[in-house]
Amino acid sequence: MQRSVKDYVIISLKGVAMGAADAVPGVSGGTIAFISGIYEELISTISNVNLALFKTFFQDGFGPFWKRLNGNFLLALISGILISFVSFMRLAKYLLENHPVLIWSFFFGLIVASIYFVGKQITRWSPAVVIFLILGALIAYYVSNLPVLAANNNNSFLFFAGALAICAMILPGISGSFILIILGAYKTLSDALHDFDFTRITIFASGALIGLLSFSHFLKWLFKHYHNLTLAILTGFIFGSLNKVWPWKKTLTWNLNSKGIKEPLLQKSVSPLSFQGDNHLVWALVLMLIGFLIIFILEKVGSKKE
Predict the structure, then answer these.
(1) Who has the most CB within 10 Å: 31, 52, 82, 131?
(2) Which of 283, 255, 243 lies closest to 27 in space, CA to CA?
(3) How many domains is the chain partitioned into structurally?
């Protein structure tokens, strides 16, 4: 596929959007990839990383290797993801601590629109498709209500967390950052990025790489043999994740972090009218609409032939 510089800039911007989404616990970068029209190419590209690819490098040189890798696509996308994820992680932390209703409202609108655009790609509906959609929704809802584990600084555990979280990051509707929180590894990774702890960053990245290469082969196989069922369960994942990003929450239990600051440990969704404190209802609705419209823009850009 011949692409221009403009095409790769657009791919990088899609990566920026994916990275920003993955930095927020509860939002999946995989959803952004799906809506922006690069999801299946991304999965296919990652799954092509194997021994035969490196054999091409040693036998034919870097040029054929890079072309077979779809290297320009990966470089543009990953650059956007990394820059956005590292920089937006701090902003996301600030917004979640100081303006939770507003940031969750934006992402709620974004995810509601995503359900429609992912679901409409199902070409044929059947009882099995409906069952898989409901199953996906139930799984995502269950995951969104799992209790949070205590923080774990063990390097082996960080490797495992990286492998599991990256699988969630490329699944629409299931947040990699939220998986890290459930596992108790989010703060460990956040501190490593903040302190430029390259040892722990490398351990996490190694786990993520192995998990990504393994899981992408499975996803590629699913899309090839069970395309509609795969789309159905992914749509269900997105639908089930709405519980996590609902803006108005009631905190049931609290946790004291290492600095002695209270943080919500277990929450449940409530009506904005019964929310304790300022519900920011007008601004919340405005931000929901903005998030909803952004998905329309991404889908329009992604649907254009390159």
Answers:
(1) 31
(2) 243
(3) 1
